[in-house]
Write a structure and sequence with these properties.
Distance between the termini: 54 Å
Number of domains: 2
Shape: flat
Number of strands: 0
Order of helices and strands: HHHHHH
Helix content: over 70%
């Protein structure tokens, strides 16, 4: 049951991160996505991947909060509660397959491959590339902020 709740939270927070108009609220919803992903990794036995996801998420959110506040334009219109409720409803609707198809907490991908080992050994390159992309984004935002300060 806990995995179904985490799947719903992951999908709803991802949809909110994509479609909310306010940058700060969108980044806040993205933090939910990182936390839910880290919890799913942790509950599946991938402890180091969960810690890595959490730490990378914290660093990414810090950079995005700062850049969103400094570079983003302040929105004149506020998101209506009906729009937010619609987005949450769409996320729950998209989560229904996760509920009814019984997402289970698997501790192994194959007969002898635990999830933690699969993430670090089989998909280790993907994890490192994700960190490289986040570092590149942080450097790019830093350059933009530096250039903006010069003007």
């Amino acid at each position: 049951m806990i995995f179904e709740i985490l799947a719903i939270g992951l999908i709803v927070s991802s949809i909110l991160a994509l479609f909310l108009d306010e940058v700060v609220y969108s980044v806040g919803a993205l933090s939910g996505t990182f936390i839910f992903t880290a919890l799913i990794f942790y509950l599946n036995g991938a402890f180091y991947a969960a810690i890595f996801q959490f730490v990378v998420g914290i660093g990414t959110l810090a950079v995005l909060f700062l850049s969103g506040e400094m570079l983003g334009e302040q929105s004149k219109k506020k998101s209506s509660p009906a729009k937010i409720a619609g987005l949450i409803g769409a996320g729950i609707l998209l989560s229904l397959p996760a509920i009814f198809l019984s997402v289970s907490g698997q501790t192994a991908i194959g007969p002898d491959v635990p999830i933690g080992e699969a993430i670090w050994n089989i998909r280790g390159l993907d994890v490192l590339l994700q960190a490289l992309v986040i570092l590149t984004i942080a450097l790019g935002i830093g350059i933009v902020l530096h250039e903006r300060r010069k003007k």
